[in-house]
Amino acid sequence: LLEQLGVSQADVLGFSNGGMVALQLAIRHPALVRRLVLCSSFYAHAGLSPELRQGFAHATVENMPPPLRDAYLAVAPHPDALPALVAKTIAMMQSFRDIPEPVLRALETPALVMVGDADVVSVEHEAQLARVVKYGQLAVFPGSGHGTYLGVGEARKPGSQQPNLAVAMIEAFLAEQ
């Protein structure tokens, strides 16, 4: 897509599953990615909370977290497509192959790894990612769940300054030469 758009190099941010996509883009097409921001993402299943991993076996629209379901339904142009989206997401998560650490070590792209200390991805996993990537940096947000520090709709904390702090950190990281 970047090549089709005539973009020779981009800064890429990925949140949650989008972080896996951003990481794969940097691995497969390193010349296209100048800087990488990985928010609450993972490179190995072991980094996810056991409850989340176990939940994939019986996940349905009916038992998905209400804030997540409600946020999707509030903006979806085709709300009736939610069951198909859930099925595809679960299949993707179950079929995801861990990225070996030697592949991550070979990555030359500077990466900012962000996570909440109460996220579905462990802080230890994200710290390991930031250590393994040659030019990795880690930011941990206290009292923050999955996406809370970004102000994600279903995880937003009214009055929290964390989204402003996260944006400032991202902008500073992207401004580095």
Descriptive report:
The chain has 177 residues and is of the alpha/beta class. It has seven helices and four strands, in the order E-H-E-H-H-H-H-E-H-E-H. Strand 1, helix 1 (17-28) and strand 2 (33-39) form a beta-alpha-beta unit. The radius of gyration is 16 Å and the shape is globular. The model has no long low-confidence stretch (mean pLDDT 90).
Summarize the structure.
The chain has 177 residues and is an alpha/beta fold. It has helices at residues 17-28, 50-55, 66-75, 82-95, 101-105, 123-132, 162-175, and strands at 10-15, 33-39, 111-116, 136-141. It contains 7 helices and 4 strands; from the N terminus they run βαβααααβαβα.
Keywords:
177 residues, 7 helices, 4 strands, globular, alpha/beta, four-stranded parallel sheet, 40% helix
For the largest sheet, list the strands in their spatial order: 1-2-3-4
User: Overall mean pLDDT score?
Assistant: 90
Radius of gyration, in angstroms, nearest whole number:
16 Å
How far apart the termini lie comes to: 25 Å
* Tally of contiguous helical segments: 7
Question: Major sheet, described briefly?
Answer: 4 strands, parallel
Percent of residues in helices comes to 40-55%
* Envelope shape: globular
Note poorly predicted spans: none
Write the H/E string, N to C: EHEHHHHEHEH
The assembly state of the depicted protein chains is single chain
Number of strands: 4
Quickly give the structural class: alpha/beta
Beta strand %: 5-15%
